[in-house]
Design goal:
- The structure is a homodimer of 122-residue chains.
- The first copy, chain A, has 4 helices and 3 strands; from the N terminus they run αβααββα.
- Chain A is α+β, with helices and mostly antiparallel strands and 122 residues long.
- Chain A has a 3-stranded antiparallel beta sheet with strand order 1-3-2.
- The first copy, chain A, is globular and about 50 Å long.
- At the A-B interface, helix 1, helix 2 and helix 4 of A face helix 1, helix 2 and helix 4 of B.
- The structure holds a DNA duplex (30 and 30 nucleotides).
DNA sequence: ATTATATACATAAATTTGTTATGTATATAA
DNA sequence: TTATATACATAACAAATTTATGTATATAAT
């Protein structure tokens, strides 16, 4: 008789994700018009070669918040007896993507400068 | 008689900083051997063209934590009657920089793929 | 049949990591 | 004398996650 013990070493999934999740969601919806939550997790996983894994506990509240803020609107669809909640950018949301992307690009650039010394400050 | 009212609009300093601060500190100490807290804030400000501003409330606890984890060691020096607490990488800290940098580079790359569609996933 | 895995949503508790607000103290420029 | 810069520290608060649960259906594997 065997006893199998699984030891999971928590490694803090994506310590760098913080602050980026909303931008990722908005950008994906700009590119794909409409997506549902689970679809977003899979898309991010596939597009990032498995490096960025969205947890449901982060994703769903983030989607709800973006909707509450008026950046997203939703509709529901049943496929294979399972409910899917689709999200789509509102006009406000469209503007927000641009703003968030600009912010992210700027931050990434400066971060790379510091971490890489690309532009090597004096 | 004039009454001047200043209205400060809080704009959430660096919403994208989260998770990156430790990496920034470690990298700066790899490049500069030894630095004190205030010096780090100024270096980051200057190197990022004022885009990344470290707040003291984030920086000092982060330094203390890195020290407690054994990645940094300190010594004190008095200059102009003011105390400076210098930080320096330990050997452990040296390894940690490499690891954190690799992690950051990987994340940034994947993030850019998603946000820019640089590598445009199918 | 039963179990595991994938799909699909949701929420609550706990944790991490920041911001904001304070506090202390010295030096220097206005 | 006042404001600003230098230099540290910590506590209260807020935000955004992770982790842990819970519900429910479909499908592949045992």
């Amino acid at each position: 008789m065997y006893i199998i013990i699984y030891i999971f070493i928590a490694m803090n999934a994506n310590p760098l994700l913080k602050g980026t999740l909303q931008t990722i969601i908005l950008k994906l919806l700009e590119d794909n018009t409409e997506m549902y939550g689970y679809e977003i997790t899979q898309k991010v996983k596939q597009a990032s070669a498995g490096e960025i894994m969205l947890t449901e506990g982060a994703l769903y509240p983030a989607l709800h918040k973006l909707e509450a803020e008026g950046f997203l609107e939703t509709f529901t669809q049943v496929v294979d007896n399972r409910v899917r909640k689709y999200y789509r950018l509102t006009e406000e949301g469209g503007k927000e993507v641009t703003s968030k992307l600009k912010e992210a690009q700027g931050f990434i650039e400066q971060l790379q400068t510091i971490l890489n010394l690309k532009t090597a400050a004096k």
